[in-house]
Design goal:
single chain, mainly alpha
Length: 321
């Protein structure tokens, strides 16, 4: 056998890695990654919706000063603010993913929401704080609102094209959900999309189907949330994997939490005894259930620790040679 030599002396064998160190593993080949542009856009969007949530959920009664338009009903403002804060979790968690399939659930939802909100803004532009009777800070907030909703959909479409052209495929599905969860999610999609489309197309006529008082502008802003949540539910039926749905699952749970707190803050504004109020509460309950199951199924599992075997002492109290 030929022994490799180094400077005339036998070469030292390679030492194994120390405790806790592992040899570098090659990156998984063939899996489409989340491109940096999409990650950056999701993080920027997360910051923007976090700020919007503060304007609506914290300064609920001061929308005439701190928001782009005045919302008279505080429960309506809190509903919108709760939606923004829930979407912060969806976008931030999606942006932290390395695989496109695990972040994808956030993108169609955000795109649909921004397009619908832009449309509602342009339809009701006369209701926005653009006139000279409003203070400069309020007008700046309003112009920022318009600029954001005009720019974000364009940027997202551009980055989405780049993402789609990135080579690779999806990893296999590893966390399927029970069949009854898909049934509930399908029901959510039907209700949310149906009511959302009706509110957006004809807010005055569809307003009685909503459990608190809304104006046409607030109705269309609310419809943008309902339709985007319905798109997320329909998208979940396509993904069919809890690991891919974790951002949406967390967003679902937070959405329910913030809406329950909003009802506790303004109980007199809610139609508790009407059919629309009961349906609203039932939908929230199903969102809580499906979000919890999806999150539990999508959490990473840890491999059980290796069991150590102890050597038996040799006869006479010694150790085996």
């Amino acid at each position: 056998m030929v022994v490799p030599r180094e400077n005339g002396r036998p070469a030292r064998p390679a030492e194994p890695p120390g405790p806790g160190l592992r040899p570098a593993q090659p990156a998984a080949s063939g899996i489409r990654p989340l491109v940096p542009g999409m990650r950056a856009l999701l993080f920027v969007a997360a910051v923007l919706v976090l700020l919007a949530g503060f304007q609506l959920y914290v300064f609920t009664g001061r929308t005439d000063t701190y928001f782009a338009w005045t919302i008279v009903n505080p429960l309506a403002a809190a509903f919108l603010g709760g939606g923004y804060w829930a979407s912060f979790a969806i976008e931030a968690m999606a942006g932290r993913q390395t695989v496109w399939a695990n972040a994808r659930i956030a993108v169609p939802t955000v795109l649909v929401f921004t397009l619908l909100t832009l449309a509602a803004t342009l339809i009701h532009l006369n209701k926005f704080h653009l006139g000279g009777e409003f203070g400069i800070p309020t007008r700046l907030v309003t112009w920022a609102w318009i600029a954001i909703y005009a720019l974000v959909p364009v940027l997202m479409l551009i980055v989405l094209v780049v993402q789609a052209r990135t080579p690779g495929s999806d990893p296999p599905r590893t966390a399927p959900l029970p069949g009854w969860v898909y049934v509930l999610v399908a029901g959510q999609a039907v209700v949310l999309l149906g009511l959302g489309v009706a509110l957006f197309a004809a807010p005055l006529q569809a307003a009685p189907a909503w459990p608190w008082t809304i104006t046409p502008l607030v109705g269309r802003a609310t419809a943008a949330w309902l339709i985007s949540l319905g798109v997320a539910a329909a998208h979940a039926l396509i993904e069919r994997d809890a690991r891919r749905l974790r951002p949406a699952a967390v967003g679902y749970l937070l959405f329910v939490l913030f809406q329950v707190i909003a009802l506790a803050r303004y109980p007199a504004r809610f139609e508790w005894g009407e059919a629309c109020g009961i349906i609203y509460l039932v939908v929230l309950a199903t969102m809580l259930l499906t979000g919890a199951v999806c999150l539990a199924r999508g959490l990473p599992t840890r491999a059980p620790p290796a069991r150590l075997t102890r050597r038996r002492p040799a006869p006479g109290g010694g150790t085996p040679g």
